[in-house]
Amino acid sequence: MQSESALLGKVAVVTGGSRGIGFAIAGRLGRMGARVSICARDQAKLDQSASSLRGEGIETLAIPADVTRGEQISSLIGKTEKEFGPIDILVNNAGVGLFGPFHEFNESDWNRVMDTNLKSVFLMCRAVAPEMIRRQTGHIINISSLAGKNTFANGAIYCASKWGLMGLTGSMAEDLRKYGIRVSAICPGSVATEFSGQSVKDPSKTLQPEDVAHAVAALVTQAEGSFISEVHIRPTRKP
After folding, report:
1. At what angle do helices 156-176 and 107-114 cross, to 10 degrees?
2. Is residue 194 part of a domain?
3. Alpha-carbon distance 80 to 63, whole Å?
4. Residue 145 is part of which domain span?
5. HSE-CB of 55 using CA atoms within 13 angstroms
6. 130 vs 26: CA distance, rounded Å
7. Cα separation of 195 and 174, whole Å?
8. Is-above-0.85 flag for pTM?
9. Which residues are known catalytic residues?
10. Which of 60, 122, 129, 155 is least surrounded by Cβ atoms within 10 Å, i.e. has the fewest?
């Protein structure tokens, strides 16, 4: 178990932090002592989630933002740094899924998935990297998927976005490791959330958001001098 004070004084940003995996990650980091900035597009849900985190004594900022838009990301980062200070941990969790035969989707569908799952990560990382480089420290964790390692029917666009994310993550890790910045990808299997486009499965045979949050906690408490580049998470019982 990670210490409740392991991240005391650290600042974390979690995208898609108002529900599901992102909310679980924000809570875990906050309980470890981090001040947490969460973003999402739904203001009402964001405020509700922030209130819940604050109820646990977690210092929380709730900033509405569309992470596919560079100007909103700049505002998110600027407000977080002004209120909390330099960002130590970035968790790129925001994502969307569209599932079905690839030939039934249009260009707008493709752009929506790629912009949310891939472009947003590039934009977020580009926004925080200069200050992390200046400080010679930082963690960037990208929530990918086992769909970024395996293909399946009806998953063409989603798989393409996650395979791209794996390539982006690996290359960023090589670009930034010389500055003491550790970049990692977490690849969960099916998680019991409200993730769009996925049918409800037996919760006892799927991962829980807290399983992914636990992996994030392990990565950000890794000893100096090494980093874990990829984590694959599967449920103990096969669906």
Report:
1. 30
2. yes
3. 9
4. 11-233
5. 6
6. 23
7. 31
8. yes
9. 158
10. 122
